[in-house]
Specification:
Elements: H1 3-12, E1 21-22, E2 30-31, E3 34-38, E4 45-49, E5 54-57, E6 59-61, H2 64-72, E7 76-85
Antiparallel strand pairs: 1-2, 3-6, 3-7, 4-5, 4-7
Length: 88
């Protein structure tokens, strides 16, 4: 994707809420919805997407700039979600 295409994609995504909620899976025992990304060959975690699906991603970010940086570095945007299960 070109930088312009990435910028357009990210600008059309919904904002993530900054409100946290209890989640014992997360190390801080608090979580919030974030943008989930994936890259082949990296360790994955399971995330519960905002559509109700379990997806495997490698990282997440709560900012549009963070998502833009991931996509520019070859990651694939998967959706918005919360941490469901850490995979070691």
């Amino acid at each position: 994707m070109t930088k312009e295409e990435i910028k357009e994609l990210v600008s059309k995504l919904p904002d993530v809420e900054y409100t946290g909620f209890p989640n014992p899976i997360h190390g801080a025992e608090r979580d919030r919805y974030c943008y989930i990304v994936y890259k082949e060959g990296l360790t994955t975690n399971e995330y519960l997407s905002s559509t109700g699906e379990i997806i495997r991603g490698v990282a997440r970010t709560s900012t549009r700039q963070g998502l833009t940086t991931y996509i520019e570095n070859g990651y694939t945007y998967l959706g918005i979600g919360i941490l469901h299960k850490k995979i070691q």
